[in-house]
Structure formats: structure tokens, C-alpha cells
From TrEMBL:
Record's keyword annotation contains Cytoplasm: no
A molecular function (GO) term: oxidoreductase activity, acting on paired donors, with incorporation or reduction of molecular oxygen, NAD(P)H as one donor, and incorporation of one atom of oxygen
NCBIfam families xrefs: PRK08132.1
Domain FAD-binding per the UniProt entry, residue ranges: 30-377
One Pfam family cited in the UniProt record for this chain: FAD_binding_3
Keywords for this protein: FAD, Flavoprotein
Lineage of source species: Bacteria, Pseudomonadati, Pseudomonadota, Betaproteobacteria, Burkholderiales
Stretches that traverse the bilayer: none
Cofactor(s) annotated in UniProt: FAD
The protein's name in its UniProt record: FAD-dependent oxidoreductase
Organism of origin: Paraburkholderia ginsengisoli
Length: 572
């Protein structure tokens, strides 16, 4: 039975704190997440999976309406896999890797975002945001330590206790929450503000975002129709059916197609949303005899902006509340989901006493760096798509014309550089390479997938990584020698739990250390993508980012790298 996630409504229920001031005073939750959108739900699920009790509050009682964010990247799908709902996303979504760029009615060039085989997930899926929220919510409802409170609006924020070096307050935060039954105080050790671009939390704390608002308007039309367009991303510059502007076409599930029409800054946003204005635009693209229905229409402007700092004491901002970009390149929701995965494991480590609150400063610094990278790329895309002067327009059109035959020009053409995860090269959690490595898996990079065999069955490397620190040892026909085995035993017995995975070349049989997982790199892609030789060892963070690697396993060096990755004093 198909669920219409746009019409779901969730009941408000009184909570324990409303039963009296004594209960409210005594109850201090480890983490409160504000906002039940994709970022808030992902953060809450990730924490709950790491045995952190979470309260999630939202001022509404429904999911989003309209498609909104629709492009979810391979990295987001990898994260959703770890959260237990990735397969549902892929099964429902429309997978795609290919994009095409047109100038007027002529194909300029085609690009493939994932030209090589051997990846579990496609480069992108298109899936309406209400499905993403619905699947995440159903996963959240399975978690016994995750409580969701609907119709619970935060109207006050107070931090208290003794501030630390980064403003951390030992006693935490008290939120004033307004409900149909009145207000009550909600206390938490930490609060994650994932309450969207207009962020009431940000306003309550007297904070703001700074950046640039682009003077252009775009119309989104979600159109339901039977069509024979391929499952690709098509972008037109100056098409004959919408001259002097741009148009973007995407396919979504349920025979729904997303069409974005550039309107210009002078367009009337109210008038342009009316069927009388939308239908002729759609018909000009599809043809006079096309049969379609309008499912959702919106007119938007956009900004590239961010908060100066994402951490304010024990309140941490994530997703659109912390940063915003233009929609070109699908960087908004994907970046927010990456915020969630970065933050959740760090909060879990701090609350468990394995790291000091200083680790949370690296959430801010790493994701501020990622936000700057996204804003930079998004701004460049927007400037190319919407040139601000006649000279810029001439340059853009010349680049597009050259792109028909010259690959160098295609590097300059920009219809929206699509989202890729930031490589956190300068993170203080990394341990620098001591030996030469080639390839993309540098410290700070998110791990890439590869097909493997586990107990004779097909599996994927990323399924073995994440949720806690993981050590990955590559070995050839020589197998795991006594020195390696002793080092692995020492790491397994160390103060910081370390999951151990051996990636054996081909079908090499390896005698495993207790609790150690052995997978077989039968196609050699894992070895190739990680530039591994016999004895190569990777230390991977709980969010599947590389934090250190060595050509030969050294338990002492790994121990020091673990301390560095947790901001523990005493690292060399």
C-alpha cells in the first residue's frame, strides 16, 4: 500500500516534563534536536544508533509538501545506508549518472558523474523530500531511545553553567517549548539546531547568517505526465521555448518531472505561480498536445550565506540553519546530511566521556570549511547560469559554443557543479602520511566503496565501516603474520573500541583475530582505490572518513592517531 507522505499528520502528546516543575527540573536529556526535516532526523537517528537518548522537537505535525530537495548524492546514500534506510531511498528513487547541456536546441556536451563500475550506489537519485523525510521518520520511530514531540515550538533558549574554552556549559541548555497545552522547560546537555533556513533558534540567540542574495527568480513546476525523456539531468541555456533564460529538467518517482524555469528578477512571484502563467511555459517545452497535470508550483530566490560559527556553547547548528546555497548543484540537503554524520559521532564520544567537548569545535571547523567550498561552487554556478552583465553573457555563450568540440571549454561550462563531499585535508583530527600514497583516499577524505566477498556472499566495503572507529588491514598471499596479529590484538584490547576489518586479496584465506571481519577483494578494486599493498592499514572515523593510513601496521602509531582523532591530550 502506497503512503501519501504529504498528507500525514502526527498527534501531539503531552510529555513527562509537563506533569510538574519537579520532573522538568530533574530531567536533563543528553541531546535535544530541534527540527524534524532530513538533517534533524538524520542526526537523531545517528545518535540513537550510538546509544545516545535523543528528544526531537518540531513546531509542526507533518512532513514537507512539494518536492523541494530532490537530488541526493552517492555520499548521502552511503550515509542513509548506515542509518538503515538507504535501500528504501534507492528502491523508490530515480537513479541517474548522466547529464546533458544544451545551447538553444543543440546538444553541447554530455557528462557522466560515475563513469566506472563497481559502486554500490549511483551518483545521484532523484527523490522528493517528503519521501526522504517519511523514510527517515519511519526509521526514527523504530528507535526506542528516540522520542519525537510534535507541535512543540521552541520560544526561548538559555545556556547555563560554567563556560569552557569554547563556551561549553557543563549544565547545558534549557529550551522553553510552546505546545497546545502551554509552555514547559526542556533541558538538555546539548542542542542541535536543525530548524531550517529561517531558524527560530538562530533568531532566539541573536545570531545571523551573512552572504549574498542573488537577484533572480526561478519557477519550479512539478509536472505529472507520461514522457519518454531519458532518466538524465537536462539543462538548457537560451532554449527556443524559453528564450534568453535557462531551464532544468529532472525526472522524479511517480511519473513526476521537475522543471525549473529562470524568470528574471523583475518577474512577479505571485503572478508566475498561477496556472495561467505556468501551463503555457510547460506546454512550450513539452509540445502543444502534451497531457500533464501540475502537482506543485513554487517561485524562489536564493542566497549563498552561512553563520560565522556553527558552534555556540552547547548549541550546534546544522543544515540550512547554519548555511545556505543556491539549488544549482544539489548542495543544500546533501551538505546538511553530511553535517549530521559529522556531528553525531562527536557528540556520542563526548557524552560517553571518551573525548572532551573540544572535539565539537572540529565539527564547526570541518563543516564551516565544507560550507565555504559549497558556497564558492554554488556562487560560480549561479554567476554562469545568470550572467550579471553583457560581457559576462558574451563570455558564457562563447564557452558553451566552444564546448561542442573542445574538452577544455567544458571545464569552464557550469550548469551547476554537482555536490561532492568535502575533503577535510586540514582537519586537526588527521594524522599526516609518513609514506607515499597515490589516489584520492587521503586523510580527510570520505571512504569510497568497492565490491567484496563476505563469507562467500557478495557485499560492499562501506557496509563494513562506520558507526565506530575501524581499522582496515590489507593483506596478500602472505596472510596476517604474527607481528600483524599481535598489533591487531593490542588494538582490539585498547581503551578505545576499534572494529577490525581485513581485506584479503582475491580468495586468500586468513585466520581471523577474534571479532575481526575478513572480506575478500576478489575484483581488486578495493586495493586499487585505496592504493593498498600487503600490510597497508587505514584508520577510519565513525563517519567513514579516513583519518590516518600507513604502509605497515604499527599499533603505537595507530594509538596516537586515535588520540589525535578524539582531541585527546598527549598526541605527538
Amino acid at each position: 500500500m502506497s503512503i501519501n507522505y504529504q498528507t500525514l499528520s502526527f498527534d501531539y502528546r503531552p510529555c513527562a516534563e509537563q506533569s510538574g516543575p519537579d520532573v522538568a527540573e530533574q530531567a536533563v536529556h543528553p541531546v535535544i534536536v530541534v527540527g524534524a526535516g532530513p538533517v534533524g532526523l538524520a542526526t537523531a537517528i545517528d545518535l540513537a544508533q550510538q546509544d545516545v537518548p535523543v528528544v526531537l522537537v518540531d513546531d509542526d505535525c507533518s512532513l514537507s509538501t512539494g518536492s523541494r530537495a530532490i537530488c541526493f548524492s552517492k555520499r548521502s546514500l552511503d550515509i542513509f545506508d548506515r542509518l538503515g534506510c538507504g535501500q528504501r531511498m534507492v528502491d523508490k528513487g530515480i537513479s541517474w549518472n548522466v547529464g546533458k547541456v544544451f545551447l538553444k536546441d543543440e546538444l553541447v556536451y554530455t557528462f557522466n558523474l560515475q563513469p566506472e563500475a563497481g559502486h554500490h550506489r549511483p551518483a545521484f537519485i532523484n527523490l522528493q523530500q517528503y519521501y526522504v523525510e517519511g523514510f527517515l521518520l519511519e526509521r526514527a520511530q523504530q528507535m526506542p531511545n528516540l522520542e519525537i514531540r510534535w507541535k512543540s515550538k521552541v520560544v526561548g533558549v538559555q545556556q547555563h553553567g560554567t563556560p569552557g574554552t569554547s563556551g561549553a556549559c557543563e549544565a547545558g541548555v534549557t529550551l522553553t517549548v510552546e505546545t497546545p497545552d502551554g509552555q514547559y522547560p526542556l533541558r538538555g546537555r546539548y542542542v542541535v539546531a536543525a530548524d531550517g533556513s529561517r531558524s527560530p533558534m538562530r533568531k532566539l540567540m541573536g545570531l545571523d547568517s551573512k552572504g549574498v542574495t542573488f537577484k533572480d527568480r526561478f519557477l519550479i513546476a512539478d509536472v505529472k505526465m507520461e514522457a519518454d525523456f531519458p532518466t538524465e539531468r537536462w539543462f538548457w541555456f537560451d532554449p527556443p521555448f524559453h528564450p534568453n533564460q535557462s531551464v532544468l529538467l529532472h525526472r522524479q518517482p511517480d511519473n513526476v518531472w521537475r522543471i525549473d524555469f529562470q524568470l528574471g528578477w523583475d518577474a512577479d512571484p505571485v503572478l508566475e505561480r498561477t496556472p495561467e502563467r505556468v501551463i503555457p511555459r510547460v506546454r512550450a517545452l513539452l509540445g502543444p498536445d502534451a497531457k500533464f497535470e501540475l502537482e506543485w508550483v513554487s517561485v524562489y530566490t536564493f542566497s549563498c550565506s552561512r553563520m560565522e560559527r556553527f558552534r555556540h556553547g552547547n548549541v550546534l547548528f546544522a543544515g540550512d540553519s547554519a548555511h545556505g546555497v543556491s539549488p544549482f548543484g544539489a548542495r543544500g540537503a546533501n551538505s546538511g546530511v553530511q553535517d549530521a554524520e559529522n556531528l553525531a559521532w562527536k557528540l556520542a564520544m563526548v557524552l560517553d566521556g571518551r573525548a572532551s567537548h573540544v572535539l565539537l569545535d572540529t565539527y564547526a571547523s570541518e563543516r564551516e570549511f565544507a560550507a565555504d567550498e559549497n558556497i564558492r561552487n554554488s556562487t560560480r554556478s549561479t554567476d554562469f547560469i545568470t550572467p550579471k552583465s553583457p560581457v559576462s553573457r558574451v563570455f558564457r555563450d562563447a564557452v558553451l559554443k566552444l564546448s561542442r568540440q573542445h574538452p577544455f571549454a567544458r571545464q569552464l561550462a557550469n550548469s551547476g557543479r554537482l555536490s561532492v563531499p568535502a575533503v577535510l585535508r586540514d582537519s586537526p583530527l588527521n594524522t599526516a602520511d609518513r609514506e607515499r600514497f597515490d589516489g584520492a583516499m587521503v586523510p580527510g577524505a570520505s571512504c569510497v566503496d568497492a565490491p567484496v566477498q563476505l563469507a562467500g556472499q557478495s557485499a560492499w566495503l562501506l557496509q563494513q565501516l562506520g558507526q565506530q572507529f575501524t581499522g582496515v588491514l590489507f593483506c596478500d598471499e602472505q596472510g596476517v603474520n604474527p607481528a600483524m596479529r599481535a598489533a591487531l590484538e593490542a588494538l582490539r584490547a585498547g581503551p578505545i573500541p576499534l572494529k577490525l576489518v581485513v581485506v584479503a586479496r582475491g580468495n586468500v584465506q586468513v585466520a581471523a583475530v577474534d571479532d575481526m571481519r575478513v572480506v575478500h577483494d576478489t575484483e581488486g578494486l578495493a586495493r586499487q582505490r585505496y592504493d593498498a599493498t600487503h600490510g597497508t592499514f587505514y584508520l577510519v572515523r565513525p563517519d567513514q572518513h579516513v583519518c590516518a593510513r600507513w604502509r605497515q601496521l604499527d599499533a603505537g602509531a595507530v594509538g596516537q592517531a586515535l588520540k589525535r582523532a578524539l582531541c585527546v591530550e598527549g598526541t605527538a
